[in-house]
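Reading a protein record of the kind used here takes only a little practice. Think of the row as the fold of the chain written in a discrete alphabet. A record is reproduced here so that you can trace the correspondence yourselves:
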Amino acid sequence: MCCVIRGMGVYTPDGVVDIDDIRSWQQPGDGHPAPKLEALRARCDEHPDSFVWLGLFEPTKDELDMITRVFDLPHLQVEDAGNPRQRAKFDFDDQGHGLAVLKVLDYYEPSSDVSTGQIAVFVGAWFVITVRYGLVGDLKGLRQRLESSPNLRQMGPISVLYAVFDKVVDEYIAVSEEVTIDVEELEQAVFQPGSRVEHADRIYRLKRENVEIRRAVEPLVSIAHQLMQEDLIWIPAPSAPYFRDIGEHVMRVHDSVEGTDSLLLTMLMAATSLQDLQQNKDMRKISAWVAIAAVPTAVAGIYGMNFDNLPGLHDPIGYPILLGVTGTACLLIYRAFRRSGWL
């Protein structure tokens, strides 16, 4: 069990209470971690207004079952937290105890890909448990932020939820801005004069990346409206402005995702139309040259037959006249196609 714990601390308004190094739990003969986790409750009782933050990384079912027993977590919420493909959600009671599941995003610059992870946050009366899946969403910086901010620690366990939520949404903004830059670059390439490159595949890939952002943000729109209106009674009044700011950021990302999706759809239609237009131009050029080539082909076909009484066949100047007539006909046809815009 100890290998899955990535961080742990007891936090009070006055500071951080030292606890045993969790790496020592991995030593042989050190015992099962459950009694040590249960002892954390006593540590919190010794320090008024303190709480425990336990961070887990990709726990197994048995490890989650042990955490469920120690912290008396609802089984349905534990199942949601243990599912890496769980939809983002907020499930809290009037006391502010419950579960938040958030999708974590990261932008990979070399390939312009969006990576997705998941963080679940359990909030109780004296504890916070974070369960992380995926390589993105490291919370080490948040622990340092909490340790150095008395204002956050005074908020109690909900301070961790705020810090995690704030970090996740900031990543949404950063990833959304990177995708927007990619879309702007692609837009210039699509409408560049004389461009013959097919952009449908790249547009589709960007739509897939935008869908990843949408899947993370869309379930949070409802909670964002409630945060902006300060309608959630489980959020303490001093904390409401902080959460309202997060709600505004969620709506900002949501609006950006909607605008990007509409723009990509328009670009896909435009790129398809431009491709069809270019193919139509190419077909007209091919048809025009075929029509021009039909004249000498027809003349060669007629005079190539085994007839002796063809016009000018025995005349010394018949051949030059025939070439002149053929060339003039081709030139007139070429001129007509040029005037019509086919060539």
In short: The chain has two domains: 2-273, 281-340. The chain is about 55% helix and 15% strand. The CA atoms of residues 23 and 46 lie 24 Å apart.
